[in-house]
Amino acid sequence: MLWGFKHLDIKTASITLKNLTEREIGDIKVPPDLTVKNLPDSMKTPHIIVKNITMAYGDLVIQQNLDFTVNKGDIFIIMGGSGCGKSTLLRHLVGLQKPAKGDIIYNVLSKNSDLEQNRQKEINFWNTSAEEQRLLMKNFGILYQSGALWSSMTLAENIALPLEAYTDLSSSQIMELASLKLALVGLAGFEGYYPSEISGGMRKRAGLARAMALDPDFLFFDEPSAGLDPVSARLLDDLILELRQSFGSTIVVVTHELASMFAIGTNSVFLDPVTKTMIAHGDPKYLLESSKDERVINFLTRGEGKQIV
Fold this sequence. Notes:
The chain has about 300 residues and is α/β, with parallel strands linked by helices.
């Protein structure tokens, strides 16, 4: 159950985009006793592969030699000190900024028209056609730090935008689906409200509902809990966990909130602003327990410089 909305369970929601369009999502099914977090490596499926990335603005190098894998179903945390390039890396991942060097590869399902079955397909985002990039980006859902809702549109109209642009659904179906997405984040009954009429936490949830509009396989969140009080931030963490569990989306999160990192993170990369490269990669809790790097431990313990188990 989500946000006190007692009569709606994500798994049994009455209408989904798949029901309305008969689109095959093809999520990998995981037995109930095996969460993504404790799957053996042999059962994990790489979803995003970052190979030897260099990020730069002209001659100014932000990060270099970045190599890591985001597995399907991960809640992947991009962490590091202020100014290390976390949001810049996110911009590279979602196709808003081209890396100075390296590859970003997405492992997606592609339908074979002859065999009528789904096949895994690797797409090197920055080394493919503009049309294939556009099709891949339709499978991205993004929650911006500020929510980035259109102030002149109601919440329902904001959620309806991607549905109007990328589906052939009727107006009534779109509005029904928009209502469902808002209900999933605890905003049932707020369809007619404008962003200025709701709180900051509610705007974040509305932004999340819009990110989920097309049932994307990839969700990208930029500082989702920034500006929220501790209770609202915890509720948002719980919502993110339930969305991952129910829909199987791969989620990439930029955050500096330690509580969120440990509560939701299953994998991570640590960017260092001094050496301008990654210095750690793995489950945040594992890094806290096992890392010998003083920079990582200081960050994960708020500068106390000791390991907390």
